[in-house]
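[Q] Does anyone have a clean structure-token version of this?
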Amino acid sequence: MIEAICENDSNRPKEIPLDKWIVKGKTYHITYTVWSITSKKLGVHLDEIFLDESCSPYGYFAASRFSFTHENLLLLMQLIQDCDDTAFSMEELLEQTILEPNK
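[A] Here you go.
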């Protein structure tokens, strides 16, 4: 997990309730990163907040809302690379997934 400090908690989308929103000045821990093709932004998943389907279409927070120490920025860069390297094909997914029979 990568430590990050929220620097921008403005413009909360109405789809995300206040109890699932970030707070300026608070420290959070990034567990995963994702590149959004539609917004062309790096998104982060936080250990402290889970954006579930009720927050749709939002599933992550923009990385630009956070600040990092130099050391944590280097760790974030490695995490981005690691998350990108985990991409695999649907075929691989099906090979690794056990399907339950229809009832």
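[Q] Thanks! Anything notable?
[A] Residues 2-96 form one domain.
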